[in-house]
Amino acid sequence: xxxxxxxxxxxxxxxxxxxxxxxxxxxxxxxxxxxxxxxxxxxxxxxxxxxxxxxxxxxxxxxxxxxxxxxxxxxxxxxxxxxxxxxxxxxxxxxxxxxxx
Length: 101
Description:
It contains one helix and eight strands. The protein is mainly β. The strands form four sheets. It has a two-stranded antiparallel sheet. A two-stranded antiparallel sheet has the order 3-4. The chain has a two-stranded antiparallel sheet with strand order 5-7.
């Protein structure tokens, strides 16, 4: 199972992996760098579903219920497309308590 974003339901969920394969020989890789500095390395044909930058600013719900076509990672357009990403942010430690029982 993998954690993914369910665009129809608008939430995260685990989905079953239905197919996986191992490629041999040379592979074309694409590095996608987002405006916040996040870098994603994936195969050039890895399927992604971008949202246009214009739609993401004018219609926030478009991020979740977008009908934009799925493209290979190499087909993303810098300055035009946006990707929905799951972020993990650091949270300061408030208190530490150690006890022995």
